[in-house]
Every structure is written in structure tokens, then in C-alpha cells.
Amino acid sequence: METTKTASPTTNQLGYARNDYVGAKSTLCSGCGHDSITNNLISALFQSSVNPYQVAKMSGIGCSSKTTAYFLEKSHGFNSIHGRMAPIATGAYAVNSQLLSIGVSGDGDTASIGMGGFVHLVRRNVPIVYIIENNGVYGLTKGQFSATADEGSTLKSGEINHFHSIDLCALAIELGCGFVARSFSGDAKQLVPLLRAAFEHNGTAIIDVLSPCITFANHEGSTRSYDATKEHNFPLHELGFVSAKEEIHVDYEEGTVLPVTLHDGSILNLKKIDGREHDPRDAKKALDLLYTSRHKQEFVTGLLYFNPDVTEFKQALELTEKPLSHLPTEGLRPSKEELSKINATFK
Amino acid sequence: MLENISITIGTVNGSGSQSANVILQRAIFRMGVAVVGKNLFPSNIAGLPTWFIIRANTKGYSSIEPKSDIVVALNPQTANEDLQHLKPHGLYIYNSSVKLTRPIPEGCTAVSIDFTKLAGQVVESIKIKKLLTNMVYVGVLCEILGIPQDIINTTISDQFSGKDNVIDMNQKAVQSGREYARQIPELNTSKKLSPSDLNKNKILIDGNTAAALGSVFAGCTFASWYPITPSSSLAENFEMYAHCLLKDDNQKNKFAMVQAEDELSAVCMVAGAGWAGARAMTATSGPGISLMSEAAGLMYFAEIPGVIWNVQRAGPSTGLPTRTMQGDILSTSQLSHGDTRHVMLFPASPCECFDFATRAFNLAEELQTLVFVLSDLDLGMNHWTCKDLNYPTEPIRRGKILNKEALDKVSEFRRYADVDGDGIPYRTLPGTEHPHAGYFTRGTGHNDAAKYSEDPTTFEKLLDRLNKKWNTAKTMVPAPDIDKRTDKVGLVTYGSTHSMIAELRDKLAAQNVECSTLRIKAYPFTEEVRQFIDGHEKIFVLEQNRDGQMLKLLAMEYPYLAGKMKSVLKYDGWPVRAESFVEGVLHGNH
Ligand SMILES: Cc1ncc(C[n+]2csc(CCOP(=O)(O)OP(=O)(O)O)c2C)c(N)n1
Ligand code: SF4
Ligand SMILES: [Mg+2]
User: Fold this and answer.
1) Partner residue facing B275 (CB), from A73, A92, A326
2) How many CB pairs under 8 A join A and B?
3) Model pTM greater than 0.95?
4) pLDDT (tens digit, 9 = 90+) per residue, B440-455?
5) B217–A333: do the CB atoms touch at under 8 Å?
6) Higher pLDDT, B538 or A1
7) Is the pLDDT at A274 greater than 90, yes or no?
8) Segments in chain A forming alpha helices (H)
9) Which fold has domain B205-387?
């Protein structure tokens, strides 16, 4: 697959350099998987020429949730409270759907305390790029198990997890999510195109990113150490993102690539790896794949499920075109005559 | 002229009596008589006892009385107990299916009526007959009270507008009750209401509907909620009126309404919407308020505007979901951990629910904080005679928002800097195309540039600035209503408790105790509240909770005045009655 880019490499279509997409200096442990995700996110934002002024960075609480401070310094960000990113992002989107909502949460933040809000955000198909930085532990409170920790894995202390792990991707597919992906923090080649595709999805895009916690879950016995994740990572496809905004020529051999067309006309090309077959348009097959790979203790990564034809939240709310937050104040209050008519109905 | 009459109607819930009672109350209202109606209903869908109490009064007393002049007993389960609701010389009308095991009190009159048979003269279907039974007692009462047939007929046709068949049957049922009553000499009493034009500029409305309308006229464009009695009808009415009033030219919504998965999410959606720049609200009651506590602290600390209607019900815990109380004053005032404090408004009538909506949204945006409006079940769900809803005179004030043009004029933007010295910072909205616009909202410690900070001085300064903002709020919230008549005894009320104050004052005056009154409208308290307390020898704080919660707030604010304040309390879940407070004041005054 060959692509020819016309944009200059140091600045993007908006004239911004990659540096314009960075944020404050990270205070996470050096080597933390979350920092790799931030880096990949910055690359994706830069490459996609995202307008920093039209982004809402949303997060909950945790090491992962802190990272919204580490990219897009110029954007509005909301580092909220533990487990509540989903409803806060829902409210923000409802009143300003022009913003690209980028949410960063943790496995604790999403799969435990925030589970209720999460499933309902997915169910409502609120457009947001929902990144779960999944390390199987609560990093910020010093390494307790999270609900995504694999059954049988151990903590540093030797404590064994006896409980079934929650697969947030399988759950999202079950909930009707139209964009479900899994990736690995260290796999820039996969994560960057996935993020760029997610930016263009018209609905909730879930990306569950395996992101090793170097400090509390990098030991023998943790199934989420950097080495274990790398070893058990099975990418489904080689990904290539082709933006609708750029004039790009793509050549590839017939039959080897499945092009997935996104809302704005951009294309995510999925190229087969090692003859592995996965058609992300089939929810049943995606669930089957997740089920079998769980039992083989593999992490299948890539675009697991894609369906562009789901009603997004704004349509369901039958909202007017202009964001509610931008409606002029003068037009907000109904007239005196309307109130007189209403008074008459209570006589 | 009949100056005062109370009627209690005992029925079974789910039997359709609710709409009959509303029709009766509205018909009385349309005669020009000031009327209140209180629905005492169970937390249940069908089969349990329910009472409706109506009081018409020419002096404008707007609370109910403990006993009634007329009791209509349709519910065999409670008919015997219902005898105790009778005043001396009262009239007791009971369904002939009721087996009376208790004697009729001396001096009272009892009349048995076969309501089902009378309804059967109108319709044969057993199901409809059951519903029409209610309209038969309405007919009987129309005859007793002298409600003209044309008034009751139009009230019925308005209620069931568009359903001609239903209108016809209901009108006939009323007619049959009326004609039957006309033949019974015991029902031919002197309890006739006199028509007037006193209600010309008045309406009959419940507080939740008025609050919903007020919110629409306040420019609210986002509402989220989770169903809970007694606040549900506020959210539902907002949605209904928004659909009528907030559409664009293509019939698309200029508002968003989300039924959330729980109150945690409902309030968080408000936080998100308020942060992103809309006027946002939610409505809830006790259990929901408890769930909202963490987000309430976030909104206080991160300075995000939003409005929460707390339509209080009887607590603690699930408590009495369908009974009223003012039990959330203390918990709401400091909802959440740390040094959190919230602005609260206390409407005392449906009219004021409407008016306070604009005030609440303006305060929320001008102060950049969460504002709670504390209504209650009595105010929210019962129908009150009150003034026409007044078109808001207050403009929609969005507070200190810097848009692109404004940002061009300043050299820097620091989200939490106290530029004006009033403790209120400036904010920008997401989506503002300006290099200085962006900032990072967080519930963690921050400096005035919204950057994370654990610095001790910075943190103290932040809490102190929030306190300064609180002091600014004292100059912005509504001042109390004061009626000063003496410097000896002052009565302090708020919210629905105030509905009995005129009657209570008359009763106390009859015992030679003259009182001034003050009605609190907001927390933080304004200077007038302090002056009033200071200006009286004795202060009685009357409220509907066990712990004297408002008194505690007052004592916290004015510790040096605490000694002169006494609580007089009632917390049985029923709407207030003046009688409940007389003893307490008289006793405390010795
Ligand atoms: C209501 C509440 N309970 C507990 C906490 C403490 N807490 C902070 S972060 C965290 C877990 C974070 O785990 P995760 O979301 O997986 O993020 P990570 O640090 O692993 O990236 C907890 C329990 C809190 N902040 N709020
Ligand atoms: S504790 Fe773990 S998750 Fe948190 S910053 Fe350190 S490595 Fe990352
Ligand atoms: Mg984690």
C-alpha cells in the first residue's frame, strides 16, 4: 500500500505544527503506557488537522484521566470526578455538538465506578472518542485490581484476582456501539489510524487501549505487564487511514484490503495480516472473536466492530442546527403573548 | 355570606377521583372563590386510601384546616375513621356500601347515598360506572355549595376537551348527583358559596408546572432528570412546554431533554451542559439530592452554573414519598464534602416558583455556581390559587462570559482570577476561537490560571475567594418579605409554611399576641434578616422538619442572636395547618 501526501510534514492543513497539539508536561511515572497513548493522540490530532478550539477534552479521575492536561493546551478541558466523565460529556455534547469530544478514562473510572454512565452513554450513542487507558489496576490509588483485570492474574503483593474480567469492547458491541476498537499503547502504527478514524465517526467510538502500569502491574503474574501485553497482542489488520480532507492516491492489491468508509468520507483501510480473517461489520463475529481470544488469553487488537448506521444522540434529541450554547440570549425567552395564552389555560 | 368551608373527600387511589377533585376545585375557583386543594395520596398505584381536602376562604387563608365541614366518605376502608375529620355540626356523606360501626358524632348530620346506582343511571359499563361515581359526588357537592351547572359543565368540557362522549357522560353524572341531592332535605344547607370576580387576575396552578414554565421563560435549554415523586411533574411539564415554545422554523428543538440513568448522571449532565454554555437544570427530591452530592461539590468548586429544583418530600431515606416536608434545608445548604456552600431560594407559591426560575438561572450564571430552588410536595403538586404568572421583568443575565471579541481586548485570560474584586471570575465557553480562551476545568486544587496546584497559600486563597463570592451573593439574592407590627414577637417562615401565616397571626392576635412576620426567600441571608431578628425580643422560626433546620442555619450565621430564637415545628408529612403552630408560639412566649 502506497500513499502520497501533499501536506507538508511540519505543519498540517490548518498551519499548525505538531507542537501546537501538546499540553503540559506529564507527571506520570516514566514509562507509563498512558504517556504513549498521549503521544499517539497528539500525532493523530496533528495529522488530522483537528481545530484545537473546537475540542472538548473530557476525563474522570485517575492517572489516565490526568492525561487530558498533557495534550491540546489550547483546548477546553474538563477533568471531572471519578466515574462521571460519561454523563458530563453527554451534557456538554447535547448543548454544543460542534465540539469534537475526546474522552480519556481509566478501567477503574469506566468499568467500576462509572459503569452506569458508560453503558448509557454508549446506548445513547453520544458522539465522543472514548479512550479507555486500560491497565487492569487502579494506578492512582496504588495498584488495586480493576474490574478488567484478568481472572487468575496477581497483584504485586501476590493477591489473586478471583473474579471474571469485564471486556469493555464486547460490552460496547452488545450495547450497539458503532465503533469498537482495541489497541496497545505502544503500537503507534495501529493506534494513530484508529484514533483518526474515531475522530470521523458519527457516534460513540470506543477505543480500549491496553496500557501497562509500569509501577503497579509490570511484574511476573500480571497479565498486563509490558512484555505480556506485547507477547499476547494479536493485531487483526494493518491499518491505513486516508483522510477525505487530503488528496491522496492509494494503490493496493485487489482483495487484500477492506476499506471502511467513515462519516466524512475518510477511509480506514484494513489490510489482512497473516491470512487472519475479520470483517468488522459483523457484530456476531466480533463477539465470537472476543470470546475465543479471551479463552486463548490473546489480546486481539484493531477495529473490532464498525457500523456507521446508528442513530446518533443529536438526531435522537431532534436538535436544532445551531448549538444550544450559541443560541442568542434574546431568542431564549418566549414572548409575553405566549405567557398570556398560558395563563388563560389555568383559569 | 359563607366565609369559610372545608371539605374532605376520602376515596381509593387509582379510582379516578383525582380528576374529579381537580374539576371540583377548578369549578369553585371559577366562581371567584379563593380555594386550595390538597391531595393526600399514598405511594402506591391503586387500592390504597387517599384524601382530598378543599378549603374555600374569603380572607385568603391558603392552608387547610384540621377538620372539615363536609366529609364525603367513599372508601369503605377509611369511612369510619373519616368521621373524626368532622367539625362539630359537620355533614357526613357516605357511600351506601359503607358499614358504619361508629356512631355519628353528636350534632353532626349523616346522609347515605348510593353513588354507584346514580352513576349506573348514566352508563352501564362497570368500569366507566366506577369512574363516574366520582362525578356523582362532585354533583352532590355542587348542589350543596351552590356551584352553578354552567360553571361545572364548562370545567368538565375544558378538562376533557376533544372527547365529546366523555364530556357528556361526566356532565350527566354531575347532573344526576345534583338532582338527587336536591331532594334530600339534609343536604339543603346554608353552605352556599358566593360568586365574585376576585379571581379575575388569578390562576389555579401547581408549583411544579409553574416552575417548569418559569424555567422555559428563564432561557433554560437543557434539562436532565430521573423520575422521582414529587419532582417528576416539573421535568415532564418542562418537556411539554419546551415542545410548544422552543422550536426552530423547522420544528427542531431549541432545547435538549435527557432522562438520565440516575441522579448522579442527571446532575453531571447539568454540569457538562452548564460548562459548555447552556442554561441547564435538573429536578429531583431527597434521595436524588443525596446522590447528587459529589457533583454538587464539583460545581461549587469548579464554578459551573446550574440549577437544581429540590421538590422536598418527607425523609429520611425513602421516607414518605408522597408527603411533604422541609427536611433538606441543612443538607442542601452544604451538599457535598469540604467547605461547600450552596445558594438556595425558597419560593412560597406557584407564582414565585415561576419568578424564581429566572432569578435562579441568573444567579447561577452571574455567580457561576449551583443554585438550588427548594420547593416541596405541597407547593409542587397541589393546586393553589395565585396571581397570574407575570412576564419576567428581569432580563436574562449570562454573567461574566468572555467571547472572542472580549478576549481580543484583554492581554491575558486567567479563569479564576478575581479581576473585579467581587470574588466572581470570568469564564469562556468551549468552542471560542481564540488562543487565550481554553482553560482546564478541574475539581482538584488549582491556581487562578486553572493549573493544578497543591500550594498551601494558593489553596487557602482559593477558598477565601469562594467565600468572598459568597458574600457578594448576599447582595444579589432576593430579600425577605417583612411585615413589622411589633418589636416583641417575630415569626420567621419560608416556603410552603408561609401559607398558614395570615391565619396563624389572626389566631395569635385573638389570644392577644401581636406578631411581626418575616419570610425568608434565600440563603445566604441578606442583611434584612439579621435586622429583623435583632429588632424583636423573641423570634419563632416555624418550619416543617424535626430539627429546626432553618433556625440552625440562622444560628450559624448569627451566633450572637441564637439565644432569642425558638423553633416551632410540624413534621407529620401533611400540608401545614395554622393550628399546629399556635400552641408552640403561645407556650414559647411565656
Ligand atoms: C468517589 C471517589 N472514590 C475514590 C476515589 C479514589 N480514586 C482515585 S483514582 C481511582 C482509580 C483510578 O483507576 P483507573 O480509572 O483505572 O485509572 P488509572 O489510575 O489506573 O489510570 C480511585 C479509586 C475518587 N477519586 N473518587
Ligand atoms: S501508577 Fe501506573 S498508571 Fe499511574 S502513572 Fe504510574 S505507571 Fe502510570
Ligand atoms: Mg487503571
Assistant:
1) A92
2) 212
3) yes
4) 999 999 999 999 999 9
5) yes
6) B538
7) no
8) 33-47, 63-66, 85-95, 107-111, 115-124, 168-174, 188-199, 226-232, 283-295, 313-316, 336-344
9) Rossmann fold (3.40.50)
Interface test with B, best of A76, A85, A104 (most B CBs within 10 A): A76
CA distance A194 to B483: 69
Q: What is the CATH number of domain B481-588?
A: 3.40.50.920
Interface confidence, given as ipTM, is 0.96
**Residues B322 and B45 sit within 8 Å (Cβ to Cβ):** no
Residue type, B302: A
Q: Is B217 in contact with A346 (Cβ distance < 8 A)?
A: no
Report the alpha-carbon distance of residue A298 to residue A285 in Å, rounded. Answer: 16
Cell matching residue B523: 440563603
CATH code 3.40.920.10 region(s) in chain B? 4-199
Coil vs helix vs strand at A137 = strand
Output the nine-digit C-alpha cell for B110.
Answer: 349523616
Q: CATH 3.40.50.970 residue ranges in chain B?
A: 205-387
How far apart (Å, rounded) are the C-alpha atoms in residues A129 and A63?
18
What are the grid coordinates assigned to A299, written together? 489480546
The tens digit of pLDDT for each residue in A276-288 reads: 889 999 999 999 9
Give me B555's grid cell: 444560628
- Residue B46, pLDDT score: 87
Show the beta-strand stretches assigned E in B213-305.
222-225, 256-259, 280-284
Phi, psi at B505, each rounded to 5°: -65, -40
- What is the Cα–Cα distance from A177 to A205, expressed in whole angstroms? 7
Which ranges constitute the DSSP H helices of B372-513?
A: 377-381, 404-408, 456-474, 501-510
SS (H, E, C) B66-111: CCEEEEEECCCCCCCHHHHHEEEEEEEEEECCCCCCCCCCCCCEEE
Radius of gyration, alpha carbons of chain B = 26
Calculate the CA A101 to chain-centre distance. Answer: 10
> How many CA atoms, within 13 angstroms, populate the side-chain half-sphere of residue A322?
15
From the CA of A112, which ligand is nearest?
Answer: 1
Which domains does chain A possess?
18-237+275-326 (3.40.50.970)
Nearest CA residue ID for atom 23, ligand 1:
A141
Q: In which element (H, E) is residue B128 found? A: helix B126-145
pLDDT in tens, B4-34: 999 999 999 888 899 999 999 999 999 999 9
The Cα B486–Cα B482 span in angstroms is 12
Which one is the CATH code of B4-199: 3.40.50.410, 3.90.1200.10, 3.40.920.10, 3.40.50.10420? 3.40.920.10
